[in-house]
Design a protein that fits this description.
The structure is a single chain. By secondary structure, the protein is an alpha+beta fold. It has two domains: 2-83; 101-344, BirA Bifunctional Protein, domain 2, CATH 3.30.930.10. The chain has twelve helices and twelve strands. A seven-stranded mixed β-sheet has the order 1-5-6-12-11-8-7, with helices on both faces. It has a three-stranded antiparallel β-sheet with strand order 2-4-3. Strands 9-10 form a two-stranded antiparallel ribbon. Helix 2 packs antiparallel against helix 4 (43-83), helix 3 (30-38) packs antiparallel against helix 4 (43-83) and helix 5 (101-115) packs across helix 11. The chain is elongated and about 100 Å long. The structure holds 3,4-dihydroxyphenylalanine (DAH). 3,4-dihydroxyphenylalanine binds next to strand 8, strand 11 and strand 12.
Length: 347
């Protein structure tokens, strides 16, 4: 045993460790010889020597494993020391990298909203069914659920959960509205940019994963007029001062009334034509659908503990990818996901 310990102390690399292992535990190893002899011993000796030999074997294995870890740590420490890079050293490079257009558009929007007094909120990408649907006034049997083609988290994980507690990849950023209101602080004035997921057939305008920006304002005397002013101001700042907004009536279970909001197309300045050809960005209509909005439904306020007789609110959602496409004049937001440096490097 002490021979083994002395030899183990001297070992400093993997090869030497392997050698020591086979010297003691290998087919022709010292300990193997002892263990092989056990069967010829008397019952008494088997009990003492046999047990002892087995204990020794276990101890050897534990010690060898410990040493292997020590060697590995030392090897990595050496690699770190040998390959250390001083990241503070100046190095002339023309290729510094840059923000992805979607991050760029998101940050431009965040700056505008912050300048209007909004705070930024965040929510998880793996969300509960309750926050993604039920508390937004979309119960399990509601036909509108089909609009949000949902990726559910696997049955293995969801099988023991109550129905409202099942997990999914959030198909929109609206659950952040619920999370924010449940904090119980009023007034609310937030935006929540983030990634969302939908089980979509991909085409020029649809991807399974994209980015939305949610907005929510709740307080006393908040009106649809405030909503219109806010979206108008933000879009004029983001795009150009002549940008026009068009509100069309729509239906969302969590807002009443609700609207789809079109923005005059930047590519053709709302004329539907570019160089006497039909504008492909807006399909020659002069408008692009970029926003959804409405007054927060009283049910949603109540379920978040807010008295709907005293308080009112507006909410809106935008598709950051499409806004980025408008702002940077790219015809399909899907191109942002193709990792083409030629495209990304232009922004
Ligand atoms: N969450 C909706 C969607 O993904 C968009 C939306 C509509 C958000 C109306 C809102 C809203 O805040 O008020 O389709």
């Amino acid at each position: 045993m002490s021979d083994f310990s002395t030899s183990l102390n001297e070992v400093s690399n993997e090869a030497a460790l392997k050698e020591l292992e086979s010297e003691y535990l290998g087919k022709k190893g010292k300990l193997k010889a002892i263990l092989a002899g056990v069967k010829d011993l008397s019952i008494e000796d088997k009990k003492t020597i046999g047990v002892k030999a087995n204990e020794m074997k276990k101890q050897f294995i534990t010690d060898l494993e410990k040493k292997a870890v020590e060697i590995e740590i030392a090897v990595f420490a050496q690699i770190e020391a040998d390959e250390a890079i001083d990241v503070t050293v100046w190095y002339p490079s023309e290729n510094l990298g840059h923000k992805h257009p979607i991050s760029h558009a998101s940050e431009l929007l965040e700056d505008i909203f912050i300048s209007l007094g909004f705070k930024i909120e965040d929510g998880p990408q793996v969300e509960s069914e309750e926050f993604a649907f039920d508390k937004l006034n979309i119960p399990a049997d509601h036909p509108a659920r089909d609009v949000w083609d949902t990726f559910w988290i696997s049955d293995d994980i969801n099988k023991d959960k109550d129905i409202w507690d099942r997990l999914l990849l959030r198909p929109h950023t609206s659950p952040v509205q619920i999370r924010t209101m449940l904090k119980g602080e009023l007034p609310v004035k937030i935006i929540a940019p983030g990634r969302v997921f939908r089980y979509e057939q991909e085409d020029a305008r649809h991807t399974c994963n994209f980015y939305q920006l949610e907005g929510l304002v709740v307080g006393e005397g908040v009106t649809f007029g405030d909503l219109k002013w806010t979206l108008d101001t933000v879009m004029k700042q983001l795009l150009w001062e002549k940008t026009q907004l068009r509100f069309r009536p729509s239906i969302f279970p969590f807002t009443e009334p609700s609207a789809e909001v079109d923005v005059s197309c930047q590519i053709c300045s709302g004329t539907g034509e570019v160089k006497w050809k039909k504008c492909s960005m807006c399909s020659a209509t002069g408008w692009v659908e970029l926003l959804w909005a409405g007054m927060v439904h009283p049910n949603v306020l109540e379920w978040c503990g807010i008295d709907h007789k005293k308080y009112s609110g507006f909410a809106f959602g935008m598709w950051i990818d499409r806004i980025a496409a408008q702002r940077f004049g790219v015809s399909s937001s899907r191109m942002f996901y193709q990792n083409k440096l030629k495209l990304n490097e232009q922004f």
